[in-house]
Amino acid sequence: MAWYITGYHRHRRQQRRQFRLALGLLLLCWAGLSWLIWELLPLDDGYVSRWAASPKTKSSSAASHDPDHRPAPPAARAYPSESLRALLGALAPYPLAMANESQAGEVPPTCELVHFQLLARDGTHYPSAIEQADFDALETALRVHASAEWPAWLREWQSPAYPPEQLTGQGRQELAQLAQRDVKRYRRWLHSLAYERHRNAWYASAAMPR
Length: 210
Prior knowledge:
Keywords: Membrane, Transmembrane, Transmembrane helix
Region (Disordered): 57-77
Low-confidence stretches: 41-82, 202-210
Number of helices: 10
Transmembrane segments: 21-38
Order of helices and strands: HHHHHHHHHH
Number of strands: 0
Oligomer: single chain
């Protein structure tokens, strides 16, 4: 009986050690996977933190002490290549330099078009009516709480009036370049099929909510 109890406790201790070892390995794998996802898939606007942490030059330091100095909007700053939101979000301009340099590659002459499916983001468009109302409310709040210590551009800021959810000029240019790249690559099939040859068909598709 004593031998049986001793063997039972030894077996239980061995099971607890194995459980702790397995739990430690699981936590280690989870930490490594989390780090890998964080490094390879940065979904946030990383350019904001990098821009803020960059060393200040003499000119930028002097401008920061100017009370009337207006900081550059985020759209004017460089987009990092790894930022998915900057590349796919329709509320920010698509980097035109990247769009112009895009090369889809030639289609082999032995291939025949079977299915064409285009995955693309909308063209840059103006804010919606709800977002426009938020801007108007912000302007009202700034007027109520205005202070003489504020920069002049902030005291005089007015909510801009835009046609809600319509394509901007750059948005139309983005879709035009998209059409040009696709037509260039699939010209051999597009000329052999009956389709609507009107460029507004490209523009209208991006102005409609999905």
